[in-house]
Design goal:
alpha/beta; 5-stranded mixed sheet; 11 strands
Length: 378
């Protein structure tokens, strides 16, 4: 049995006045329009915090009603900031297992109309309770990861700036990005400190937005080749090291195995860069380069859109925006758009044949890797 991404719908990311259900419906309707409103067997919705942030419950039923999917089955999936990736893998698994012929996967989040401290508190609920109890926050723990990586490999803090500069440069080509303007390394370096060594532009911003894909039985340019997911210790202090994310490494190994592919067959990736140092760890964890080598890849342009291994041609979480429930799915959707030849201004110089999406849930406690490309599925 094979499954492929047939259609994509992505709304504009940023500060949006519409409620969450409207954002989801916008993306879902765009994807459905591409397939001529064919019958949907299953609706899978991903959202991390629809209740506490958007004050919205019974999300799947509300969206099904808006989209006229009264004959479909459906459910909501949650995996913290990887909720969109989890929703995609759930929908694709239904097709691969023969439970559905056509699935609509939609994921999104509404965050900007809540005070920043409230948003930070809600996001922090995905961390280990014992670490939260002593004041840990998502940026604080990300900063610890960055400190350990930089110290171990002997890098200065300034290497982080290249990630943010590249993300914003790529976002210029994305008409739906939250930050479609470039920044210089100097602007990144002089931004206010959030949690040393992380500065403002090293951190993805609060955002609203949604994305959708239609997954159908059969194969095409964006066939589901391999999927993997894995857990790590919820408490960061319980992990053997902070030089990479074990959950990504395991998820990637599983995805490569199921895809019957090696890393060298992957043409580009959409990686979870909620914080600039995560892009280094992600690139190394999926096997593109060795430990401690990623900063040089960013510095010399090997990860640029015209480089050896393009990273986040859509702008990534730092440039496109990070509505937490949507990010994991929009990464898959952006990979699909490149493979389908529908990336328009964001298109890579040479149309790729295989791409990878990697998503992080919480502080890398539940991570996902999805590989799309031509040919057979996992």
């Amino acid at each position: 049995m094979t499954a492929h991404v047939r259609a994509v719908g992505i709304g504009r990311f940023g500060k949006r006045p519409e409620p969450l259900v409207d954002l989801l419906a916008e993306a879902g309707a765009a994807a459905l329009e591409e397939i001529g409103r064919k019958t949907i067997d299953l609706l899978v919705v991903g959202s991390m915090a629809a209740g506490p942030l958007a004050h919205t419950e019974n999300l799947t039923s509300q969206l099904a009603d808006r989209l006229g999917l009264d004959t479909a089955a459906g459910y909501r999936v949650e995996a913290a900031s990887a909720s969109g990736a989890a929703a995609f893998q759930a929908g694709a698994t239904a097709v691969l297992g023969g439970a559905a012929d056509r699935v609509l996967v939609v994921a999104g989040e509404k965050m900007t109309d809540r005070p920043t401290p409230e948003v930070a508190e809600v996001l922090g609920r995905s961390l280990a309770p014992t670490e939260r109890a002593v004041g840990a926050t998502m940026p604080a723990l990300a900063a610890l990861v960055a400190q350990r990586y930089l110290a171990h490999f002997g890098y200065a803090d300034a290497v982080l700036d290249a990630v943010s500069v590249q993300a914003r440069a790529n976002a210029v080509r994305n008409p739906g990005a939250q930050f479609p303007t470039p920044v210089t390394a100097e602007e990144v370096r002089t931004g206010r400190v959030i949690a040393a060594p992380l500065r403002l532009l090293h951190c993805a911003a609060v955002s609203d937005g949604a994305a959708a894909v239609v997954v159908e039985r059969g194969h095409g340019p964006a066939t589901v080749r391999g999927m993997g997911q894995a857990f790590d210790a919820l408490m960061v202090a319980d992990r053997p090291d902070l030089l990479g994310f074990r959950a990504t490494r395991t998820a990637a190994a599983r995805a490569y195995e199921r895809a019957h592919a090696t890393r060298k067959e992957i043409d580009f990736a959409e990686l979870h860069d909620a914080f600039a140092p995560f892009a280094f760890l992600d690139l190394e964890d999926i096997g593109v380069c060795g430990p401690g080598e990623a900063p040089q890849w960013f510095a010399d342009g090997r990860t640029a859109v015209d480089g050896r291994f393009p990273v986040n041609p859509s702008g990534g979480l730092l440039g496109r925006g990070h509505p937490v429930g949507a990010s994991g799915l929009v990464q898959v959707a952006e990979v699909a758009r490149q493979l389908l030849g529908r990336a328009e201004a964001m298109a890579l110089p040479t149309r790729p044949t295989m791409g990878l999406a990697q998503s992080i849930g919480g502080l890398a406690a539940h991570n996902f890797v999805t590989i799309l490309g031509g040919g057979g599925s996992a």
